[in-house]
């Protein structure tokens, strides 16, 4: 197994088989100790934290250039962080499953002859919303693991938005949490 790192910032997963790419890609061959952790590492590399880190400290939202040369200057959790890796792996498997379901649905509609542009766009939006929720959970896991303060998490999410990337609803989630915390502290009139 390997993780393809694309020039534009895309990161994927290659299981035994083939990869065809229209953009430059590097295959990150994992060391033996990382066997079985490909899905978890994929989540880590796709997290908002790592995108922010690459933008803020390496000058590019993509880890592509950095991963060409060792030693890497990218923070990676120690391999012994089993519980966090297990949760990240579950989230990544959910994304992969959603991707496979999405493609199967599109192929099924195409075979039936009912896949027009509007239908395809609706399916794509629904799929992206589903994956955004999963990616938000990945970000929560990473930020919890790093014991990030809410203010730091908000700063990272704003930076992600500033570089015109998705924060997967993180800013909205933080605002909602802040509003709920305020209501809990002061109560609601008439309640």
Descriptive overview:
The chain is mostly helical and 191 residues long. It contains 6 helices and 2 strands. It has helices at residues 38-46, 48-58, 82-112, 117-145, 150-162, 170-186, and strands at 2-6, 25-29. It has a two-stranded antiparallel ribbon with strand order 1-2. α1 (38-46) packs across α3 (82-112), α2 (48-58) crosses α5 (150-162) and α3 (82-112) runs antiparallel to α4 (117-145).
Explain the layout of strands and helices:
Layout: E1 2-6, E2 25-29, H1 38-46, H2 48-58, H3 82-112, H4 117-145, H5 150-162, H6 170-186
Helix pairs in contact: 1-3, 2-5, 3-4
Question: Roughly what percent helix?
Answer: 55-70%
Note the beta-strand portion. Answer: 5-15%
Q: Pairing-aware structural class of the strands and helices?
A: mainly alpha
Query: Uncertain spans, ≥5 residues at pLDDT below 50?
Result: none
Number of strands: 2
Cα-to-Cα separation, first versus last residue: 56 Å
What would the principal axes of the Cα set say about the shape?
A: globular
Q: Strands across the major sheet, in which order?
A: 1-2
Compute the average pLDDT.
Answer: 84
Largest sheet: 2 strands, antiparallel
The radius of gyration computed from the alpha-carbon positions, rounded to a whole number of angstroms, is: 19 Å
How many alpha or pi helices? Answer: 6
The run of helices and strands is: EEHHHHHH
């Amino acid at each position: 197994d390997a993780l393809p790192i694309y020039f534009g910032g895309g990161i994927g997963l290659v299981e035994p088989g083939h990869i065809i790419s229209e953009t430059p890609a590097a295959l990150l061959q994992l060391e033996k100790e990382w066997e079985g952790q490909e899905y978890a590492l994929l989540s880590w590399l796709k997290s908002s934290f790592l995108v922010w880190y690459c933008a803020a400290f390496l000058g590019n939202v993509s880890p592509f250039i950095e991963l060409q040369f060792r030693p890497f200057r990218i923070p990676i959790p120690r391999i012994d962080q089993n519980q966090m890796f297990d949760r990240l792996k579950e989230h990544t498997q959910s994304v992969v499953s959603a991707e496979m379901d999405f493609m199967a649905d599109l192929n099924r509609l195409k075979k039936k002859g009912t896949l027009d542009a509007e239908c395809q766009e609706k399916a794509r939006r629904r799929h992206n919303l589903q994956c955004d929720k999963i990616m938000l959970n990945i970000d929560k896991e990473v930020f919890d693991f790093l014991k990030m303060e809410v203010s730091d998490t908000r700063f990272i999410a704003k930076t992600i938005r500033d570089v015109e990337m998705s924060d997967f609803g993180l800013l909205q989630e933080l605002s909602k949490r802040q509003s709920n915390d305020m209501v809990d502290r002061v109560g609601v009139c008439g309640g």
